[in-house]
Amino acid sequence: MLSPxxxxxxxxxxxxxxxxxxxxxxxxAAFPWGLLKGLLESRMTARFGRPVAVGAMERVDNFGFTTxxxxxxxxxxxxxxxxxxxxxxxxxxxxxxxxxxxxxxxLALEDVSIEGAQLNLIRAADGRENWRGSTGRGGIGxxxxxQLVVRQSRLRYRDDKQNRNFDLAIESDPAxxxxxxxxxxIRGTPVRVVAKGPAISGEKQGKWPFDARLTGDDxxxxxxxxxxxxxxxxxxxxxxxxRASDLKLVDAVIxxxxxxxxxxxxxxxxxxxxxxxxxxxxNGRVGRSDLSGQLTVIKTAGRTKLEGSFESRQLDFxxxxxxxxxxxxxxxxxxxxxxxxxxxxxxxAKIGRTDGRISLKVSHIVxxxxxxxxxxxxxxLVLEHRVxxxxxxxxxxxxxxxxxxxxxxxGEDGPVPLVRxxxxxxxxxxxxxxxxxxxxxxxxxxRAVLAGRGSTIREAVGNSSGRIGLAARDGELxxxxxxxxxxxxxxxxxxxxxxxxxxxxxxxxxxxRNGSGRVGPFVVDTSQSRLDGQGTITFPDEQxxxxxxxxxxxxxxxxxxxxxxxxxxISEPNVVVPRQVxxxxxxxxxxxxxxxxxxxxxxxxxxxxxxxxQVLQ
Length: 617
Fold this sequence. Notes:
- Helices cover about 15% and strands about 45% of the residues.
- It is of the alpha+beta class.
- It has a 28-stranded mixed β-sheet. It has a two-stranded parallel ribbon with strand order 16-18.
- The longest helix is centred in the first third of the chain and has 24 residues, at about 5-30.
- The chain is elongated.
């Protein structure tokens, strides 16, 4: 029990606390908010790092915890690098809010009325944004407003990084709802913008629907969906369709790091949650190639993480380049000639903050230039801190397949990645690799284990070290060719067109160092002859420099002494017989040896099995 002396003191304390709370409540309910004009200016100045000015600030109502403040002639300058353009000017603004929310330290807006606002958003080519403040915060939040009224206001946006600009009129009122209309230009393509949604008012309950369209001759996009609350762009679901002459135009809007392509048509079902986008369904066409799949994009700790899978029933690699890109590639191909190593770009410098795992499957590969030597593709791509691993990788051929692993390592943020390849070709054939037909047959297997730096596959192989091996076995070839490989000119001349010889094996091994491959072994072994070679194959030009010597496995009709040189490129080889080999003196020497029987030892059969294991290990 309380003592008689303590009871009066507690009553006095309770009365004093009640009086203090009452005074504070009355003060808060009747506070002249206009007195805080200077504080508001200083806080906003600190927020943006530029001197913010408010022409006038006054309380509209007289008394209450739900209050309203009117501001006039608000000016927020832009940063010095953006020139003399103000970030924002507002002729008149009224803000309604709960005064009690200030006690919790978080302002709860209830209604906002804006008139005569001019907002100028600018992003420089280097990525700087004029709406970012000195504290590093920025952007526009959404959700929680009971009512938004906007009259006679405009938003102008200029983005030098993505080469796009817009001039938009913004109106919002309880009768007509929210409307955004205007024009713009994206990478030189004129577009018109129309967006609308219901009125933002306290009477609106549940999800807030919206509809946004961007239309132009070369680019059109349509997004229709719902937000959890008005302007709550972090909680929404939508259906998106897009049509463009180039996927890069779509990328200029969504900024996903996409590339130039042939004309594209896409449709997607998308959800937006805090820090993530979820593309539940994506379907579309790029040129004559189709694409379907799903993707999740998560933003966390300053990085972007991708998780998804994509499939294509038909893919033409030329669809993944614009007409201008194809033209440049054709000019380059004409200048350097055909190459077997692709010039695919693999530099990861622009995706330093992206990680992820994506599976890819292509059922059928086609080409506008005729039948493609590649028929299908499947792989899993794992990207982590600029290290891209494609494993397992499977490339289908018209006969056989290529399997293995490819790693593109730019983890040290260097300008040029380290490319590591471990690829194996199995079950192919000489006719299949030659494009079909031909008079030489045989099964072909191959192995390449290489590591080199380069921004393209061709450049990386041109700087690579490692080994390359190829083995063709158990085939046939015209007998006249088999005799010629043994330098038996007489046997080649006497062979009938229909005569065939056995191709026991073709073995080629390259020891690569800094893009230069030392040949060893180099053997072409047939039932009639054996050809051996020594020399080099250099990349990226794929130049051949190989000295060839051959001998028959039987008594030659007319064996020419000497050797030949193979030069040219892998795609277009050329065999040069030195003048002295073809000379009259050499021919008479060969005839004399044939008469006397002194033609040298016959060629020995190669150990094709051991050589195959050696180059394919």
